[in-house]
Specification:
The chain is an alpha/beta fold. The chain is built from 15 helices and 26 strands. A five-stranded parallel beta sheet has the order 4-3-5-6-7, sandwiched between helices. Strands 12-13-14-15-16 form a five-stranded mixed beta sheet. A hairpin with a 3-residue loop joins strand 24 and strand 25. Helix 2 packs across helix 3 and helix 10 packs across helix 11. The radius of gyration is 24 Å and the shape is globular.
């Protein structure tokens, strides 16, 4: 049977099913906009504004400073910075040198940083002042390949470090360097970024993202988004960490697709986000569900200027349908759910504006193919409406992981990326994620998907947050346990939670255990950290077994 792209018929009228991808680079795309609109704001952050020209001038100087330190094409340069203008400037500078950017969460613990430095082979790191001392300790320990530390001092958060020839001040390097464009030949297939996966289900892996991947994203994004608003009106609210592929791609690269302006929010709190919305009037906001839900509860949201947001993209985790409806009712904005990951250059599946299906991640982008395959053999497509593993193919898929041939061969087979996500496709080609292969609960031989239970409990008026996992059961193999966070001032019993589920779920899906928490553990991207919940449960059971 021929492969059927049943989703094509639901594309917005002006979105083609196939696209032409220019042979260019991230560096050249940025320079194109610098030349076309030098005085247009590129970065806004609190009271700071950097035009395209100003950003490029600083990036050229930093690039030349890096080259003077011996950094060359193909070297890895780590970046441990929060959402501040210097992150964007540093990223463009590294690209100009032909080196490979390695974004690192500045809040990582020393062991987490050590892994990323060692696995990537990074010898140079540009670090935020407050985390520089711990990175210096790692460099001095000899346990990492680090040889050079460039410190970005921030007013009010200055740190004192030893005077040494391998420690450099960011501002001094930039001010003393040449402002000429570095003469470095870059290729379409050069690796631009080594983006590490979260490691929530195993050892983090470095995804090799190339100019080819990013150019494909540029091209697809602008075609998909132009039905939301004119490209020249793109003003992006940047609350997702830039060190994460979702933040980097949907915020920096989204602007490079159309020559837009980005507003960085360094410290993401509901108050700060609302202030940024009121001052900046964004038209586009890539957000995470947890922050959307927090804003829903903010008393000043109804009087804010959030109606300026024409296109709110929700990603990284499932957005409860009730939360989507509430935000749209209050603000008049349109929320579009999408799906992607580090291996897919982030965005790869999204709801079209013309036909959204709440709860669904949408349909594949142009030139992207998907299949839902049998969980056991990974080959046979399952019938429409049946769950299976989501596999994806197309120009946004990486070719390999960094120095991990076995993991590459396991995850990418004949060009198809095996995502580890369990999904269902409907008759229209729309996809819904129902769980992760490693999160799936098998109870009495039946597959139970934690998200289904989460979604149901989110509808209860007393429940604020929830996370479901499987726990050992001597009879059933596994039973369902839910961790619940109640809304302030509410009370609820375990029996009430179980009875609520019993009214809507098959018996094998109904939780047998309920535990109330103050907070649900989440990853840095605010996904429910089911691995942490399982570890909590295992520790509790071990303790009880020893008593």
């Amino acid at each position: 049977m021929a492969f059927e792209r049943r989703w094509h018929k639901w594309y917005d009228p002006d979105v083609p099913t196939q696209l032409y991808y220019p042979v260019t680079t991230m560096k050249d795309e940025f320079i194109k906009w610098v030349r076309a609109q030098p005085s247009k704001p590129y970065i806004v952050c609190n009271d700071k504004v950097y035009t395209y020209k100003e950003t490029n001038e600083m990036a050229k100087r930093l690039a030349n400073a890096l080259l003077s330190l011996g950094i060359k094409k193909g070297d890895r340069v780590a970046l441990a910075l929060p959402n501040i203008p210097e992150f964007v400037i540093s990223a463009h500078a590294v690209m100009k040198t032909g080196a490979i950017l390695v974004p690192i969460n500045p809040l990582y613990t020393p062991p987490e940083m050590t892994y990323n430095f060692c696995d990537s082979g990074s010898e140079t790191v540009i670090a935020f002042g407050p985390v520089a001392p711990q990175i210096l300790d790692l460099m001095r320990s000899g346990k990492t390949p680090l040889k050079k530390l460039i410190v970005l001092q921030v007013p009010g958060k200055e740190v004192t470090l030893e005077q040494a020839p391998d420690i450099y001040d960011f501002a001094t390097l930039v001010s003393n360097a040449s402002n000429l464009e570095p003469d470095i030949h870059l290729d379409y297939d050069d690796i631009v970024i080594l983006q590490y996966t979260g490691g929530t289900t195993g050892v983090p892996k470095g995804c090799c993202l190339t100019n080819r991947n990013f150019v494909a994203f540029f091209t697809i994004f602008i075609e998909w988004a132009k039905s939301m608003f004119p490209p020249e009106e793109l003003r992006t609210l940047c609350t997702v960490p830039l060190y994460h592929i979702y933040g980097f791609n949907m915020q920096i690269n989204g602007n490079l697709a159309s020559g837009g302006t980005m507003c960085l929010v360094p410290e993401v709190t509901p108050d700060n986000v609302l202030d940024a919305i009121n001052n900046f009037l964004p038209t586009y906001w890539p957000a995470v569900p947890a922050l959307i839900q927090m804003l829903n509860m903010h008393p000043k949201l109804p009087e804010s200027k959030a109606s300026s947001i024409k296109f709110l993209l929700s990603g990284s985790a499932p957005l409860p349908v009730e939360a989507m409806k509430k935000f749209e009712e209050i603000t008049g904005s349109t929320i579009i759910e999408g799906f992607g990951g580090s291996e897919t250059t982030n965005g790869v599946i999204c709801n079209p504006k013309g036909k959204r299906k709440p709860g669904s991640i949408g349909i594949p982008f142009p030139d992207m193919d998907v299949k839902i395959v049998d969980l056991k053999n990974g080959v046979d497509e399952v019938p429409i409406g049946e769950p299976g593993e989501l596999i994806i193919k197309g120009p946004l898929i990486i070719e390999k992981y960094w120095n991990k041939p076995e993991e590459t061969a396991n995850a990418i087979r004949d060009g198809w990326l095996y995502t580890g996500d369990i999904a269902v496709m409907d008759e229209d080609g729309y996809l819904t994620i129902v769980g992760r292969t490693k999160d799936m609960i098998i109870s009495s031989g039946f597959n139970v998907y934690p998200r289904e239970i989460d979604e149901l409990l989110y509808t209860h008026p007393k429940i604020q947050d929830v996370g479901a996992i499987g726990v050992p059961d001597p009879i059933r193999g596994e039973s369902v346990k839910v961790f619940v966070v109640l809304k302030p001032g509410e009370t609820m019993t375990e029996e009430e939670v179980i009875e609520f589920c019993r009214q809507s779920l098959a018996a094998y899906k109904v939780p047998r255990y309920v535990e109330f928490l103050d907070d649900i553990p989440r990853t840095n991207m605010k996904k429910v950290d089911r691995k942490a919940l399982r570890e909590m449960e295992a520790a509790r059971r071990a303790k009880e077994g020893n008593n």
